[in-house]
Amino acid sequence: MWKLTNLQHLDIAGTGIKKMPEQLGSLKCLNTLTKFMVGEGSGSSIRELGKLKSLQGTLSISQLQNVVPPKDAMNAGLKDKKYLEKLALEWDAKTLRPKSERIVLESLRPHTSLKRLTIKGFGGGIFPDWVGHQFASLHLWEYKNISSLPPFDQLCSLKELSIVGLMELLQWVVSFVAIVVLVLLRFSHLEA
After folding, report:
1. What is the span of the domain harbouring residue 135?
2. CATH at 106
3. Among 64, 116, 158, 184, which residue has the least CB neighbours within 10 Å?
């Protein structure tokens, strides 16, 4: 990969690639990276994303259960990627390490200019405060071990909210200011 130092766009979404090329962080000119899969062990470290300062558009980060140690997620530098518009964060639904997953998600706080956030498979129990901030579109899918949601009541910018598969959610106080689209599916324990 290091020979492609001038590469600007790498779209691997939908390709079936199971692991990232080595030394992805050496592509300093990369503006578009549609998908990044965190490798196991010595595989693709989430630190590689931190070296890609110019990312913009859409980015999906999957296999977040492989971030070890969890604090390493901070090295992705998402807070500094002000040109990202859409971000998807995904954990494998087969694993459950609540404390690690919570630390990883807290460390992946994106820049405040992000418009759309999708979080899938998170099992950390509690969402960090930033999840309830600034997004126009928020999608929460397939959660394990989540019994409460962040407060959405003061989100004037939130226009679209979809929540799918929160089987452990017991109660939720709902008050929305500007929601245009609301999708709620598969809540097995929610009290009316």
Report:
1. 2-14+21-185
2. 3.80.10
3. 184
3-class state of residue 47 by DSSP: helix
Per DSSP, 24 falls in state G
Closest CA to 148 of 172, 131, 124, 184: 172
Q: Decide if 191 is inside a domain.
A: no
- Give the per-residue pLDDT at 147: 67
How confident is the model at residue 130, as a pLDDT?
86
Number of domains in the chain: 1
Domain for residue 192, yes or no? Answer: no
> What percentage of the chain exceeds 70 in pLDDT?
80
> Is 190 inside a domain boundary?
no
Six-digit token string for 61: 């980060």
Q: Residue 76: name the closest of 42, 112, 48 by CA.
A: 48
Determine the Cα–Cα distance for residues 87 and 139; give it in Å rounded to an integer: 10
Mean pLDDT of 96-125: 91
Average pLDDT value over all residues in the chain: 84
The 8-class DSSP code of residue 19 comes to S
Beta bridge partners of 86: 58, 116
- CB distance 189 to 166 below 8 Å: no
* CA nearest neighbour of 183 among 122, 120, 139: 139
Residues 126-132, mean pLDDT to the nearest whole number = 81
Say if 173 falls within a structural domain: yes
